[in-house]
Amino acid sequence: AQETAELLSYAPNVTPGLARITEGIMARGAGSYVEYTDGRKMLDFTCGIGVTSLGHCHPKVSAAAAEQCMQIVHAQCSIAFHAPYLGLVQRLLHMMPHPSLDSFFFWNSGSEAVEAALKLARIATGRQNIICMQGAYHGRTFGAMAVTRSKTIYSVGVAPLMPGVFTIPFPFWHQLGREPSTPTDELVKQCLYQLDLVLSQQTAPKDTAAIIVEPVLGEGGYVPTPPAFLEGLRAVCDKHGMLLIVDEVQSGFARTGRLFAIEESGVRPDIMVIAKGLANGFPLSGVVSRKDLTESLAPGSMGGTYAGNAVSCAAACAVADAMREEGILENVNARSTELFAALEAVKRAHSAAVVDVRGRGLMLAVEFAGEGVAARVAKKCVERGMIILTTSVYEVIRFIPALNISAEDLAKGAKIFQEAVDEVLR
Ligand code: PMP
């Protein structure tokens, strides 16, 4: 306790620019639980924002990383290949949502990989402009922030950002001022119409390199992208020689009940961005595309000191193996059905206050009516022993538990949520 107090006395020396939803010092994690130095044990429905998808300190992943630590930690990617780098390519090739995705490079964070994807799109097409979605989140670096449209807090006081970015609405009822019951095809039609307008009024196709989209709008509200919208984007890209960049940073690696969320639509990405669940907590991200696109990259035009770190890649290899060997997808789909049912029950019990239950797999969300409700519910969950996050500028709570969570822990989390909602709405 004394050591904790001593350490916490330095907290004022950490930038207040970081938000924090729990008090104290997190000391340990195992599976779906984390422990604080003061003995609090919390059920984790955040996975460190969708990262530790196989649970905290998955034994095989941690062992693979530890083993790699004793071999080589930093075999710099512009100096030499290391075995886990190529071993990861070998594994990922078989996991891709489309066989055309056969050219990889790795980075550290989702933001950096988005930056690289944008650069690649410009280089490969010789065009400058990018079209992004209202509500999109792609990261906090300058280029990634330029295509982020989920909250102003990230960019307040920071502009000018990268120019040449155009925004179209995403088929989410909020964005078109409609009701949750609005038929999806109506929303899709309106958004594709806006895309046509942008391409005829604001950025000509021959100046437009790419459209970037999340297959599940994440920080914008946890909204699965309708397959018809993705098909529409694909068709427009094909028609005009533009590239479709699919950001699977949050939705990838079985999170939505498929290896990649884009599979639901069958749409082929030209460039796909991956991170988060890829290495279960070790910093690693990647850009995947086609060899014919990356052919135009001169050696040395891409790179980064830590990009594709050996320990992170070794962890990611173990993640890929565990995904296959441990029936992860099956568990996601079974637990998803249970969680959805539990959240629907909460909605029925509070039909005026709960506006919507949505999502895919174990990337689910509940939206409330009334200002501040989501934050109050999240706070009550923390008090009751479960960490959970809000998302977007709307009143949304998101559920991103470990993909291998047990039925028992899932039910426990659902119950904590239900009790928190009952208390807040009482
Ligand atoms: N893209 C998406 C869809 C994300 O959800 C995030 C992170 N929440 C990012 C990109 C940025 O990733 P990172 O925080 O690792 O830079």
Q: What is the topological layout?
A:
Blueprint: H1 2-8, E1 26-30, E2 33-36, E3 41-44, H2 47-50, H3 59-71, H4 83-93, E4 103-107, H5 110-125, E5 129-133, H6 142-146, E6 165-168, H7 184-201, E7 208-213, E8 216-217, E9 223-224, H8 227-240, E10 243-247, E11 271-274, E12 285-289, H9 291-294, H10 310-325, H11 328-349, E13 354-360, E14 363-368, H12 373-383, E15 386-387, E16 389-391, E17 396-399, H13 407-425
Parallel strand pairs: 3-15, 5-6, 5-7, 7-10, 10-11
Antiparallel strand pairs: 1-2, 2-3, 4-12, 8-9, 11-12, 13-14, 14-17, 16-17
Helix pairs in contact: 3-10, 4-10, 7-8, 11-13, 12-13
4'-deoxy-4'-aminopyridoxal-5'-phosphate (PMP) binds next to helix 5.
Outline of this structure?
The protein is an alpha/beta fold and 426 residues long. Helices cover 38% and strands 17% of the residues.
Kindly give the count of domains.
2
CATH class of the largest domain: Alpha Beta
Taken in chain order, the helices and strands follow as HEEEHHHEHEHEHEEEHEEEHHHEEHEEEH
Mean pLDDT: 97
Helix vs. strand class: alpha/beta
Radius of gyration over C-alpha positions, nearest whole angstrom = 21 Å
Indicate the CATH topology of the largest domain: Aspartate Aminotransferase, domain 2
Q: Which residues form runs of ≥5 with pLDDT under 50?
A: none
Main sheet record: 7 strands, mixed
What proportion of the residues is helical, as a percent range?
A: 25-40%
The largest beta-sheet arranges its strands as 4-12-11-10-7-5-6
Count of extended strands: 17
Q: Which ions, cofactors or small ligands are bound in this entry?
A: 4'-deoxy-4'-aminopyridoxal-5'-phosphate
